Each structure stands twice: as C-alpha cells, then as structure tokens.
C-alpha cells in the first residue's frame, strides 16, 4: 500500500528517466506516489521526443491520460483528454506519443514490466478478464453525480470501472460554489490530480498540478470551490462511500522532559483553542459558502449542525475530557482496600465509552493479509460496520502552493 501524500504540487517532485520498457524515444517521469510492495505507481510523464512502443502485454493494469499533446493507439489518434486502459495480461496494440506530450500514467497491481508480442492474437494470461478501453473524454458529456455530497454541482465522466474489484477511474468536476462543510472518510483509497481550476480545503489548495493519495479511512474535508470550478482525474480501489463527521476536534499532549518552563510543563498541540486563536486561512466567502451547504442540507430534511471553523466556539475537546472524567468517577469502582474484601469485591464496573472500538472495524481487520496496514481498503457493503477513521495530520509528503491547516485531519 502507498503512503499518504497530501497535498503536493507536482513541481516539488524531481524528474527521473521514464521507466517505459521496450519503447523508443526519450521521456521523463515525476513519481507522484509509488507502492514499493507491488510496484503500483502514479506518474506524470513528459515526452521529449516522439516515443513509441509496439504491441505487448503489461504486467500491471495500465492507464494513460493525455493532459496536453496527442497519443495514438492502434492507429487511432486522440488529443487532450485521450484515455487508454490496458489490463494486465491482455495483449495491447502499438502506442505512440508526439514530442511535447504530457500525460498521467498509472500502473496498478504490478510493475513496469512489458512483454512484446507479435499481435493482438497473442494468448492472454489465464487470470485476465477485461479488454483494452480507448476513450476520447473530451467528447463525453458530464453527468451529475447521484450523491454529490451536501449540495448539487458535482459532475462525473466514468473512464473505467473494474467489474470485479470495483476499482474505478473518473473525471470529476465541481462547479464554482460547490461546498462540503463536513469531514469524510472512505473504505477505499482515493487519489486525484487537478487538471483544471481551484478549490480550497483543510489540507491545502487544489489547483492545476496538485496531487494527493489518501489511504482508506483518512479523514479530510471542508471544501470550497473557487471561480471557474475545479476538475480532477480521480481514482479509487473500490466504491467510494462517504462517512461524514461534524464538530470534529483533535487533541494530543504529553509531559515535557527537557524543554519548556522548568522542563516539565504539560505541552499540548494540534488544537486551535490551545493556541489561543482561531485557525486562520478561511476567507469570508469560504465561511459563507460552508454555511450555505448546511442550509441546503436542512432544506432537504437532513439533520445538520452549523459549520464552526476550528478554534472558534466551544472547545469540544475540553468537553470530551470532562465527560470522560465524569464517566470514570461514576463507573470506576468501589474505592475499597485490597486486604479488606475478597476477589469479588475487587471487581470494578466496566467503563462505558459509548462504542466498543472493535465494533468499528471489519471482522477480518486484524487477521487478513493486510492487517499490517490499517490504511488498506476493504470491501464494504451497506449494513457492514463502519470502520473508524484514521487521523493523519502529517502526511508523508505535503507541500501546497496554498494554505496548510494542521487541524484538517
């Protein structure tokens, strides 16, 4: 599984010689994210000369999306918005790119391996089950997303949906003013590259050339879409279900050992209230649009709380600590000395924290082959337990041209 990358501008990546086995020409790649376990990669390619490769079989599910320039697959030329999906183990036709072409290139569940074949009649791998897909996405129409979040204005073009795993690749457009005032997490991973426009949220600014890779269950949100809307090429390794959170807070602390006044003052971090100020960065327009999303939800008959920016209003973390202390006092035991009573008298009432943490995990969460990685996606169906979110305030890579709010989770 890949590490959490959020949010980074592609210009902050270095160029490498492109790993395009068996091709002729010269190209460079930026490695947006890489899975070192199975070779899966999300890449930005620039072709410095005309480049081509004959028919062959990819060792990974392979995708190309043209940002600028042109691509020819099997004699069919497609410009900006051209998309090719070549499943692993399936013979693919010859492909070429013209000098100056810029593309997004993805490999999933495999590495860059490529076996040349004489033609498309070459035998498939025995476990292959899909066919090559070639699409001119510029010629497609936008469809409204059935569940667009808290308000209308989100549109989609489906490029590929895996009929077995549910893995899907799509273009998503949020029109100007589309807003989501809640934090969300999903059962699958989610990654996106911004191909147009501008959106603000707690992890930074989504503008042209920004990228994120979010493992399953990582909390994120508070989106506001700016002038002209925003468009992404977005991928997930399963159906993207939204589990929403409001009135969220994060607090952590510890005993200072060799820093702070007198070396032992309690130090708290990651809460705007602790800093004695509200979190800066949201414009008046943002705050207005976030509240408009709340009002729209209420018009639809949905229960929704007002949006309150981090660091303002009641500090919910302090209330939670007070409630926990009250629960401990009310349920925590009898207060008798050990030597005065038999073993039965030593039993203490079990603390009731409202939810059994085990109920928030899939049954196989700690036993399956991915048990070492809580951020790996798991299949989820309506009625299954909803897994708890992962709070990831410090991704492995993060450098945005916009704002960073550590309370973004």
UniProtKB/TrEMBL annotation:
Residues 331-350, 375-409 are annotated as: Disordered. Pfam families: DUF4437 (PF14499). It comes from the Bacteria. InterPro entries: DUF4437, RmlC-like_jellyroll, RmlC_Cupin_sf. Residues 334-350 have a biased composition (Basic and acidic residues). This is DUF4437 domain-containing protein.
């Amino acid at each position: 599984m890949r590490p959490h990358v959020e949010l980074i501008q592609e210009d902050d990546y270095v160029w490498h010689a492109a790993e395009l086995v068996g091709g002729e020409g010269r190209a460079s790649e930026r490695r947006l994210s890489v899975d070192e376990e199975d070779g899966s990669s999300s890449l930005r390619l620039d072709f410095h000369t005309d480049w081509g490769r004959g028919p062959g079989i990819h060792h990974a599910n392979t995708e190309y999306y043209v940002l600028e320039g042109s691509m020819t697959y099997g004699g069919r030329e497609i410009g900006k918005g051209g998309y090719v999906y070549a499943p692993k183990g399936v013979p693919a036709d010859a492909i070429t790119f013209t000098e100056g072409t810029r593309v997004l290139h993805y490999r999933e569940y495999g590495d860059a391996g490529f076996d040349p074949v004489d033609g498309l009649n070459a035998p498939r791998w025995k476990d292959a089950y899909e066919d090559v897909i070639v699409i001119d996405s510029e010629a497609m129409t936008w469809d409204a997303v059935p569940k667009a979040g808290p308000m209308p204005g989100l549109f989609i073009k489906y490029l590929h949906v895996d009929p077995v795993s549910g893995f899907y690749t799509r273009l998503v457009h949020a029109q100007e003013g589309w807003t989501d005032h809640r934090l969300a997490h999903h059962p699958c991973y989610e990654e996106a590259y911004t191909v147009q426009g501008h959106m603000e949220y707690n992890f930074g600014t989504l503008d042209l050339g920004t990228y994120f890779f979010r493992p399953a269950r990582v909390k994120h949100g508070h989106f506001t879409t700016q002038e002209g809307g925003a468009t992404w090429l977005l991928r997930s390794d399963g159906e993207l279900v939204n589990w929403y959170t409001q009135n969220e807070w994060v607090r952590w602390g510890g005993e200072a050992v060799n820093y702070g006044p007198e070396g032992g003052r309690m130090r708290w971090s990651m809460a705007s209230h602790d800093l004695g100020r509200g979190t800066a960065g949201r414009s008046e327009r943002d705050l207005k649009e976030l509240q408009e999303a709340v009002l729209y939800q209420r018009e639809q008959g949905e229960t929704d709380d007002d949006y309150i920016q981090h660091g303002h209003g009641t500090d919910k973390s302090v209330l939670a600590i007070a409630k926990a202390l009250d629960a401990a006092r009310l349920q925590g035991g009898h207060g008798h000395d050990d030597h005065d009573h038999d073993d039965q008298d030593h039993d203490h009432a079990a603390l009731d924290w409202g939810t059994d943490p085990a109920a928030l995990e899939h049954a196989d969460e700690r036993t399956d082959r991915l048990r070492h990685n809580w951020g790996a996606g798991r299949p989820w169906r309506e009625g299954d337990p909803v897994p708890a979110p992962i709070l990831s305030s410090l991704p492995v890579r993060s450098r945005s041209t916009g704002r960073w709010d550590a309370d973004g989770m």
